[in-house]
Amino acid sequence: MCDEFGPTPSKGAYGDDSDEGFDVPWHPHHGMDILSYIIEGRGRHADSMGNRETFDSPGFQWISVGSGIEHAEGGGTPLGQNTHGFQIWMRMPAELMENDPEYGVVNPDEIPVVQLDRGQVRVISGAVDDVAGPARFAVTAQILDVELEAGAEWMYACPEGMDNAMFYAFKGSAVLNGGTKLAARQVCRFDTSGPRAASVVAGEEGFRMMVFTGKMTREDIVWHGPFVCSSRANLRSCFAKFQTGELPSKRADWDYKRISQKPK
Fold this sequence. Notes:
Blueprint: E1 2-9, E2 24-29, E3 32-40, E4 42-47, E5 52-56, E6 59-64, E7 69-73, E8 82-91, E9 102-106, E10 113-116, E11 119-125, E12 127-128, E13 131-132, E14 141-148, E15 153-157, E16 164-176, E17 180-183, E18 187-189, E19 197-214, E20 222-224, E21 227-229, H1 232-243
Antiparallel strand pairs: 1-8, 2-7, 3-6, 3-8, 4-5, 4-7, 6-9, 10-11, 11-14, 12-13, 14-19, 15-19, 16-17, 16-18, 16-19, 20-21
């Protein structure tokens, strides 16, 4: 799943030391990898592992949820500035869905950038030209932020071993493989059984897109709301555990919703 949010004017900024102002209040997840990528404004996050962080744009947080987390997000952008970004959900392989959760934040100067003749590629996960992104997921994925000047051409090559490739355009437009136009708010999914390269030529206003490429697991899954599970029994168990306070099972040993309780 790819959810683009914004650009939306901020109602005010809150920091790591506040329990207030989360745009998205506390909620759980299970069995997925999550990327929250902010391209305008300031990201903010709190979770059941005790993490409390803000980060500048373009920057991101990654979470390999596994057996479960509870978190809250947003409210870090100063008043009057825009928040604009993406939240990406990726289903985990079933055998890894009960792993302990993991989390990281990556600030702008920590995102590797591949410079093109007339553009650039920010490498979030996977690799481009042997430049590897810092996000760590249970699922194999290449995620890129590609920005091209007007008229610039870029050749995309699908990595070996991956069989699911999509472009999501969010600024300007481009022509793919000499014929197909891709405009903002459109997505293109490729048939990777054929040629594994694609030509991208930016339109007269330039072009920016997210690239999502991965390896399909082809496993059956059951999901509802924030829970992705391997079976209906697993799904029922997740809801029951959350309702009785047993999920997340791996959590901070203090009241993580109250920053005043965090150990010094």
